[in-house]
Amino acid sequence: MPKFIFPFVFLFSVMLSAQNNFTKEITKVKGDLNKDGLIDYVQVLQDTISETAPYKLEIYFAETNGTFKKIISTIKAIDQQFPEGRNGYYNGNSFYEITIIKGILSIHNELIRGNFEHKFRYQNGNFELIGFSQVYSDGQGTMGMIDFNLSTGIRIKTTEPYGEDDFPKTKNQTKMMIRPLPKLQDFTPFKTEYY
Q1: How far apart are CA 126 and CA 104, in angstroms?
Q2: What pTM was estimated for this model as a whole?
């Protein structure tokens, strides 16, 4: 084998094996995502060999002949379990579950003090982000909630006290149209301050 071919073959085999380490099934949910009356499914797999333990989200549409067609495969939509490596800093985000309710695919994550959810709907030939919600605590007596309907552009942020402190409740509603809506295959959570 010529010397210049060996590094290419080695690199290609390393890249191929890295892509095939998503062998642990974390969850699988079923539902009609594209409103064709057939039951599709979404699964989340994890690469448990990698130091960061990334997740892969895959969406399969059911075909009329009983087979399934892969529509999306992404490793960006769910944060890695250990973004800084197994012995690194823990950021507090952790994948919790995915759900399909009335054709809406939701990705749920937990925080150290709260949770957040991203909602996607199949429309315009893509899974588009249509909603974001978050509940969180600042750890100092205030609970916050965000509800952002990306379809309408309405974003509501509220805060209220808990415990013994008597801070005033706040409610702030803004309109922010984001077009085009983010697509699931390109989506990474919290790459903007809004979702």
Answers
A1: 12
A2: 0.85
Q: How many CA atoms lie within 13 A of 193 on its CB side?
A: 2
Task: Write out pLDDT tens, residues 62-102.
Answer: 999 999 999 999 999 999 999 888 887 766 789 999 999 99
| Cα–Cα distance, 142 to 134 (Å, whole number) | 14
Task: Give the Cα separation of 7 and 174 in Å (integer).
Answer: 55
Q: Which of 137, 172, 135 is nearest to 155 (CA)?
A: 172
Residues in the chain: 195
**How far from the centroid of its chain's Cα atoms is residue 93's Cα?**
11
C-alpha distance from residue 179 to each of 17, 18, 151, 152 (Å): 37, 35, 9, 11
Each residue of 91-134: pLDDT tens digit? 678 999 999 999 999 999 999 899 999 999 999 999 999 999 99
Q: What is the dihedral of CA 14, 17, 19, 20, to 10 degrees?
A: 180
